Amino acid sequence: MDWTVGNFLLTGQNKLQDHRRTRVANAYYSLFMAVGNVRGYATGAYSGWYKVFPFTFNSSCDINCANLKAAFLLDVIFIICTALHT
């Protein structure tokens, strides 16, 4: 999702052929990529997501599976919030 937002900023600004705006768009792209990488690492590093979303943990899905489902759910929520905000 972060790549999509950054790519939109790049392509939207390049249509005007203004070098300053292109540099600003590249800076925003880098910012979104950095935030996405940190957010992804932090989500994967935290092993207690099944406590935050207890409905992901059941008899057929152990702790690792529940954490993976919770990380996916967080990503979907983030995508929806970002899409609604823009």
Which helices and strands, and how do they pair?
Elements: H1 2-14, H2 19-45, H3 49-52, H4 63-85
Summarize the structure.
The protein is an all-alpha fold. It is built from four helices and no strands.
Question: Could you name the ranges where pLDDT drops below 50 across 5 or more consecutive residues?
Answer: none
Query: Structural class of the secondary structure composition?
Result: mainly alpha
Number of domains: 2
Rg is 17 Å
Q: Please, could you describe this protein's structure?
A:
The chain is mainly alpha-helical and 86 residues long. It has four helices and no strands. Helix 1 (2-14) packs antiparallel against helix 2. The model has no long low-confidence stretch (mean pLDDT 81).
Keyword list:
86 residues, mainly alpha
